Amino acid sequence: MTKPRIGISSCFFHADPTRPIFKGKTLLYLVEPLAHWIQSEGAIAYLIPSVSEGPHAASLADFAADLDGLVLQGGADVSPRSYGEEPLKPEWNGDFVRDQYEIALFKEFLKLKKPVLGVCRGAQLINVALGGTLYQDIPTQVPGAVAHRNWEIYDQNFHDLEIQARSRLATLFPGVKKTRVNSVHHQALRRLGQGLLVEAVCPSDQTIEAVRLDADGADSYVYGVQWHPEFQAPDRSETTPSSLLPAGPLLRDFLGATGKFKRKSR
Ligand code: MN
């Protein structure tokens, strides 16, 4: 059986005339732990670049046709302009260029019914691509919410997670209703995009932490998690609290949806 070929959407370092390397050029990148997590079950990870115009140029549709699944990675804020709002503060402008690229990419994979997994910003992007909205800043717009981001401790910031009954997550983790996840975000899902179902919330402030597309009989697999599974141990925790949600089952579920996944024997 061939190995699943998984495309990862790019993060953008926009052209910066003050940068000492690649001055004035846009850089596209991914975060290494995400690629290593996807590859940990034998899938092969590829970075999907942005595309250029031109009659013979490769399109995002070509990438969707060529790959088996898409992971939308974390990074810059989603621009409020992508869901019809003005930024409440200039520092919450987000990355409109990246939004447009990722929304187009998401729609191409959806069109071909190829699985999509959104991580952190990726979950928010899925929501916006399906017509939903976000909180631009949790501390400002959800008074009393727990700390969903703490720069000092970054991926060591955790909060409780409540898994919804009859969710896909509940079938992946039978008997687990309450667990813990990391939290490195200051935006959150507000109005749900069309067809999305809430899979898990932060119980103390009801922040939406996981969603999936209700495919309604169709075979589209679209899943978004607000936490970073790639920063948590895949199956058994050694460096993080043992109560954390293991990241392996979600990855195998996503890869399984490609129809090309067979776990390597060890
Ligand atoms: Mn959170």
Structure notes:
22% of the residues lie in helices and 21% in strands. Helix 3 (96-111) crosses helix 4. The chain starts with a strand and ends in a 10-residue tail after the last helix. It is α/β, with parallel strands linked by helices and 266 residues long. The longest helix has 16 residues, at 96-111. The strands form 3 sheets. It has a 9-stranded mixed β-sheet with strand order 4-1-5-6-13-12-11-8-9, sandwiched between helices. The structure holds manganese (II) ion.
Helix content: 10-25%
What's the number of helices?
A: 7
Radius of gyration: 18 Å
What is the mean pLDDT? 93
* Structure classification: alpha/beta
Strands, count: 13
As laid out across the biggest beta sheet, the strand order is 4-1-5-6-13-12-11-8-9
Bulk shape: globular
Ligands bound here?
manganese (II) ion
Question: Layout of SSEs?
Answer:
Layout (H helix, E strand, L loop, with lengths): L4 E5 L1 E3 L13 E3 L2 H8 L4 E5 L11 H7 L2 E4 L23 H16 L4 E4 L1 H9 L4 E2 L2 H4 L16 E6 L4 H5 L5 E5 L5 E2 L6 E7 L4 E7 L8 E4 L22 H9 L10
Parallel strand pairs: 1-4, 1-5, 5-6, 6-13
Antiparallel strand pairs: 2-3, 7-10, 8-9, 8-11, 11-12, 12-13
Manganese (II) ion (MN) binds next to strand 12.
